[in-house]
Amino acid sequence: MENKYQKVKDGLKEDIISGKFKVNDKLPTESELMQQYAVSRYTVRRAVGDLESDHFIYRIQGGGMFVQDWHKDWSTPTDTKLIGVITTHIADYIFPNIISGIDQVLSQAGYSILLSNTHNTHAKERKSLISMLDSKVAGLIIEPTQSALPNPNQDLYQEIRDDELPTLFINAHYPSYDFPYVDTNDLISEQNLVDYLFDLGHQSILGIFQVDDIQGVNRMNGFVRAYQQRPELSYMSNIIMYQSGEDSQKLFERITSYLKQADAPTAIACYNDQLAIEVIDFLKSQQLRVPDDISVVGFDNYKMGEYFTPSLTTVNHEKERMGADAAGMLIKLLNREKVESITYEPEIVKRHSAIQKN
Prior knowledge:
This protein is of the alpha/beta class and 358 residues long. The chain is built from twelve helices and 14 strands. The strands form four sheets. It has a six-stranded parallel beta sheet. Helix 2 crosses helix 3 and helix 4 (95-108) packs parallel to helix 12 (320-334). The termini are far apart. Residues 2-70 form the HTH gntR-type domain.
């Protein structure tokens, strides 16, 4: 079945070639084309953009769209081989490694990448998606934004699917869309990490999870499942939930309230390594020794965690491999080949921030 974008493009092209619109005739406005074809503005823009690149259409700023002299030989390369990559962040934490893995594979295949980040807000995700569609990228690799919350940008994702633009997700995926993905088994990995703390003799454990991302929700569920399988300890579990952008001082105040309890936690399981490093710094400021007084574990195997004092016990994240696998899958999608989603089963990285409870 012909997708919406192709329908608009082919319809306009046929009207031009058939002579319905002659050279230099003014074409209908974007709004009129949206109404005529019952499509969104982004579909019209993509179709018109292709016809402009193919020299069927030219634009006059503030004046509209007109028919180009399409009989003329305009022979110039138009295939930019540009891939859009949208992540929640770019410059810090594990993202440079993921992007590096993507770039290595795509560059070898002759593609360039266009980067954008959402700072984990839906408004910026929308701007990023619109920018990518306007740039006529050949495909998209997207890390979902606040993936555990309702997404107000479903119209754009529907647009991407209707246009059959090769797209896949990394780190998480929106279950309402059938795009392939590369992610991590966060639930089982966190469950294994908490079981490891149990094996070290810890029973009262505080879990701190970011719950506007599906990764955080799954990790929290893994924490809960570990306690469910040890019903005699279930009453000793404690959880703090927070969302991205939340004031860290309030988070530390909530941690302090747990530390003051009679059955204070002897270990803290953090949403990721970035948070774990902040928590360790906070505990040191409270004159608590890590791991002697309290153990702390993270998630993602952030490179800095290896050199932090104490070195951080964590769960591995495939990073470069994830980027490379995602890029390889996207190339297959561009070649109209079938792909299967990938879910990693990472190992615990045992270091010095978690020790046997005395």
